[in-house]
Write a structure and sequence with these properties.
Helix content is 87%, strand content 0%. It contains 6 helices and no strands.
Amino acid sequence: MLTVSQRAQKRKQQQQQQQEEQQQQQQKQQSDGCSLDSSAQLEELKGQVQQQQSEIAGLRQKCEEQHAKLEEQQVKLEEQEVKLEEQREKLEEQHAKLEEQEVKLEEQREKLEEQREKLEEQEVKLGEMLSALLALQQQQAEQRAVAATHLPVELSPESLAKCCGCQTGSSGAASASSSIVSAVSSWEREVGGGVGATGKSNAVECDSRAANRPGWWRMRITKAVLAGAYMLPVYLVIDICNKVHSLQQRG
């Protein structure tokens, strides 16, 4: 039989043992709960890591795609830059050609301006010549009108030669020569010295030699009048021939 003290000590030991078992059980439960919490957290962390990894992979893929697009754009930009450089060179060449053409056009314009000035000068000269020609034509028309009033009944080269080459005596020759000189002098006064010294001196020379050589003046006057040496108008030549012809008729 156990004594009271022994029984009390035994109960005390049993209580301690129960307490220890309870403590161990509680510790075990706590350790099991901690392990469960750690596993859940770990799984959650793993899920987060995987999600982040997938997001990173997606971002990496997008970055690679954008990088590829940027490289393509860079290649296109380089090609465009090359084309723009070629166009710039072509434009510079065209600009240089246009400047050359502008210089040539300026030279042509200056030449055309010079030609225009020359043409204007020629036009002025032609106008002056035309005015002179019109004046000459008017003068000739007036002379023809005057000559028409002095025409004899018969006028031909044969009759003119016959009149200037008629046979007269010495007195007739002198009178004819004087008539010729008088006709030339009157015509010179009318036109202001038109025949000149040569024609008049020839007539005076004919007059001075007519007395000694009656046939000389006829040959000289005939040649001079027919060759136009006196530069006399037609009506005056006809007038001279008429005077010679009238002297011939009077003998």
